């Protein structure tokens, strides 16, 4: 494991080891207080962030490392100077690069031209750190993740892709429910179906929300991804039948609600669900730090 660009690059064993290590770090943080002693991590962010920036910055500090944040005020990646030069120069000083970018190709260039580990903190195709936090959260509720039935309802996006790869590696059952024209990337679907078949899991895709039943958890995300220019009124009209509300939770028997945040109450999900007793959203948010720390320790410890 040289980088974390996508969950699909992990083996099942590597994924399980990261989740196990994340639990250990969360339970016994003092044992990892100097895990990154003397290490420096540069964070390159093209997009705004709350959870990703704070969880990485504080998490690196808790491991005894040093974090340096660079946003677009230092020049857009690939515009002020080539991404390859960003990667090569930062590699002269830092021990790792954490990047939150618009295009996944930027993440790949950083890994190709740098000489230090690169962690994808979000791109247009994948959000692996979120996916790891999500499965860490589920593992705290279910002893055997291969038995979990997870439904994702809404827009098929980078978060969906990471959840799909993770569920497939773990042998879980994942159902993705999207309006027509908003399904996950076709190539990702093909790859996930192959991985799921190898691990005893399954991937189900449908536009008919009435078809889903017997789920352990329902996951949703914002209907418009950051940077999209779609009309909110048009999106609301198209996605209204896919709102996660208590009636849907009860219908499918889902005990838990999940969301990567930010959440827009009464849009993709009702406040009753977002703030309800079965909501795992703050546990997911906290687990971003623990899952990312496990990745950092794996790569640098």
TrEMBL record:
SUPFAM superfamilies: Aspartate/ornithine carbamoyltransferase (SSF53671). Its main location: cytoplasm. Transmembrane segments: none annotated. Pathway: Amino-acid biosynthesis; L-arginine biosynthesis; L-arginine from L-ornithine and carbamoyl phosphate: step 1/3. Residues 3-140 form the Aspartate/ornithine carbamoyltransferase carbamoyl-P binding domain. Carbamoyl phosphate binds at residues 100, 127-130, 260-261, 288. It is found in: Cytoplasm. It catalyses: carbamoyl phosphate + L-ornithine = L-citrulline + phosphate + H(+). Residues 147-297 form the Aspartate/ornithine carbamoyltransferase Asp/Orn-binding domain. HAMAP family: OTCase. Belongs to the aspartate/ornithine carbamoyltransferase superfamily. OTCase family. NCBIfam families: orni_carb_tr, PRK00779.1, PRK14805.1. This is Ornithine carbamoyltransferase. The lineage of its organism: Bacteria, Pseudomonadati, Pseudomonadota, Gammaproteobacteria, Alteromonadales.
């Amino acid at each position: 494991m040289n980088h974390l660009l996508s969950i699909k690059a992990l083996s099942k064993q590597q994924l399980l080891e990261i989740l196990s290590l994340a639990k250990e770090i969360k339970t016994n943080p003092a044992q990892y207080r100097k895990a990154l002693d003397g290490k420096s991590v540069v964070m390159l962010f093209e997009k705004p962030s709350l959870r990703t920036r704070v969880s990485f910055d504080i998490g690196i500090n808790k491991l005894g490392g040093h974090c340096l944040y660079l946003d677009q005020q230092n020049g857009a990646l690939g515009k002020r100077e080539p991404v390859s030069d960003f990667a090569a120069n930062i590699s002269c000083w830092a021990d790792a690069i954490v990047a939150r970018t618009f295009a996944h190709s930027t993440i790949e260039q950083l890994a190709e031209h740098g000489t230090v580990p690169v962690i994808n903190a979000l791109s247009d195709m994948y959000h692996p750190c979120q996916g790891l936090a999500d499965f860490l959260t589920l593992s705290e509720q279910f002893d055997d993740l291969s038995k979990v039935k997870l439904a994702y309802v809404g827009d098929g996006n980078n978060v969906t892709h990471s959840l799909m790869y993770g569920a497939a590696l773990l042998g879980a059952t994942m159902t993705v429910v999207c309006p027509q024209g908003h399904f996950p990337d076709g190539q990702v679907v093909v790859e996930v179906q192959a991985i799921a078949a190898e691990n005893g899991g399954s991937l189900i895709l449908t536009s008919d929300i009435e078809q889903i039943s017997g789920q352990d958890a329902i996951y949703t995300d914002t209907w418009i991804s950051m940077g999209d220019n779609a009309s909110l009124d048009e999106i609301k009209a198209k996605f209204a039948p896919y709102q996660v509300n208590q009636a849907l939770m009860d219908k499918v028997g889902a005990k838990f609600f999940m969301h990567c945040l930010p959440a827009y109450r009464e849009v993709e999900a009702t406040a009753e669900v977002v703030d309800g007793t079965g909501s795992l959203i703050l546990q997911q948010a906290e687990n971003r730090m623990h899952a990312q720390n496990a990745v950092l320790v794996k790569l640098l410890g």
